[in-house]
Amino acid sequence: LPVIVTDQGGPKESIIPNVTGLIVEGKNVNDLLAAMIILLDDGDMRKQMGKSGRENTEKQTFESTFNQTWEIYSDLYSPFGC
Asked: How far is 60 from 56, CA to CA, in rounded Å?
């Protein structure tokens, strides 16, 4: 299933906006309702987002996350500044 998350906190960093789910303004009931209606009304979008969400989540392993973090720090703290 696709997800709906708010723009506050960490969950928004786990999705790809409009690909694996929707991001709504925090504490905005109307924004949440609109997102729910969009997903309820568009079955094809809902199915595609759900499929993309599952594929994206399956790629987010501990090893891949560690390697991405390692690359960031390696680039930042390279002894040659490159």
From this structure: 7
User: How far, in Å, are 27, 57, 74 from residue 62 at the CA level?
Assistant: 31, 11, 18
- Render each residue's pLDDT in the chain as its tens digit; 82 residues: 999 999 999 899 889 999 999 999 999 999 999 999 999 999 999 999 999 999 999 988 999 889 988 998 988 887 665 5
Q: Residue 26 to residues 5, 9, 21, 72, 79: CA-CA distances in angstroms?
A: 8, 9, 15, 29, 41
Are residues 36 and 64 in contact, defined by beta-carbon separation less than 8 angstroms?
A: no
15, 6 contact by CB (below 8 A)? no
From CA 51, how far away is CA 64, in angstroms rounded? 20
Q: Could you tell me the two tokens for 40?
A: 């309820």
